[in-house]
Specification:
heterodimer, A: 175 residues, Aconitase, domain 4, B: 427 residues, alpha/beta, Aconitase, domain 3, 2 domains, five-stranded parallel β-sheet
Chain lengths: 175, 427
Amino acid sequence: MKEIIEGRVWTLGKDVDTDGIISGKYLTIIDPEELKKHVFEIALPEFAAGARPGDIIVADENFGCGSSREHAPQAMRAIGVGAVVADSFARIFFRNAINLGVPTVEARGVRAIFEQGDTARIEMRAGRITNVRTGQSVPFPPLPPHLLKLLEAGGLVEQVRAELAARKAASTPTT
Amino acid sequence: MSPANGHGQTLAEKVLARASGAERVVPGEIIEGNVDLAMMHEQGAQTVGPFHQMGAEKVWDPERVVIAIDHWVPASTEGAAILHRILRKFAAETNLPHFYDVGRHGICHQILAENGWVVPGDLAVGTDSHTNMLGAMGAVATGIGPTEMAAVLALGRLWLKVPSTIQVRVHGELGKGVTAKDLVLRVLGEIKTTGATYKSVEYTGPAIAALSMPERFTICNMTTEMGAKCGVVAPDEKTFDYLAKIAKHPMHPLYADADAEYERVVDIDLDGMPPMVACPYSPDNVRPLPEVAAEHIKVDQVFLGSCTNARIEDIREGAALIKGLQVAKGVRFIVSPASTKIYDQCLKEGLIQIFTDAGAVFTNSSCNACFGGNQGLLAPDEVCASSSNRNFPGRMGAKEARIYLLSPAATVAAAIRGEVTDHRDML
């Protein structure tokens, strides 16, 4: 996880649900490279073709509500989304994104200070997000240490792998 | 952690304290909870990769893992067939005996309920957002993603933020033709789709005590649409009776303290409440059914199905309404029971014949139209009356299609009249 994340902004409204991010008809797709072609097909149709690695999603309240599909943050990770920022998140999306190592920032009032195509600068530990064009910024409570650790590990897979490896090493006889 | 103050704990806090081995927990605290039951459906196929990447070799406790495929059953696409095969192979390799495969299948939450996999005091997790339904057992049951599930399978635990709790106190009595579905739609209209995000919703009061277990499943199920981490009902004699012969592991009944601290209290009075309907395009766009019925909204399709409302009681109610009548001209009516067990009951009770005589399609158990990936999708601008749980754009096929969420009886009435209707004059 980078301490400072900067990128071009794509704006979205409130209550963007996971059907709007990855439609039900694509749920049998496992390959993230294939999934990313359909990301935001309903909610933001021009995104998949126009997105660049490092771009930042800025949404209003309740981003990622609805179905528990991990396909949604997976597709965003595959396309190289730098961070997902919203006034608020639906809980499963928030968990899935963090577990996949996608930086997630909940900042009240953030959607109102951005327009499509602006540049956002996020200070993860300081808890501040700034619109580079206008200079406006909003503070946010930094993620709790437990979750920052998870992002630093690169996500849940890496973290559990380290724990299991440590367990194995501890149980292996040293003689 | 020592008590921050003298206040008691809510039901969800009690369950999470038990799961984490703590005396008490406080909202906002992040805990590591031991999982009592882990459930996977097709999304579990995405658990297999991370499980191996983690270097895990065995599942922490195969007796605590259920696999129940439900979204595409039997496989309707090559992709779904591959997901099913990945799960079968994984179950064989890691010795997971509790696989509800094609022929013994059902919607995963119904499989958990009717086989007693979740009991009072449990922390249950599943790869589906409507796992919340099992909170009706007096448990904390919540949806997680497949990567998280891989960690659960490897370690038997996961991190959880202790939720604050909204208490929903329900008084009064449901009127004729008004159901638990109308109750939960009414609560949704109040709390809205963001009102309970990360929170627990605890349903209490005499009207909740009066509900049957299937009715409690319906209300806890749609707590998901409020954004909640869980919806819970305290266990009582009905819970214990329901589970008496089927509980798969020991119960640990827990109850909220009398001085528990609630973030918010919502009072709902059922006396005089009409049936409700959630209009497009959000489950919280709830209006009284008589008002919407007056607009004579024509429907193209009707769906009686989903984990929310396709239990035997729902299907019996629908059959009683449509018996001897016909599906309106130009309307497609699809009935999909919530499990194979319910399908069998329908067969034995002659209910399937009642629906097919009326011109309905009675399918095998699957999520089907509810999630727009299997049988019963909608074309642009089509309208569907449904007993399911979501009506977001694109939920059931085309993004322009419009879905009205109703009680099972009102759903079936829409099939008969060809429009969204107040069914109470048909009872």
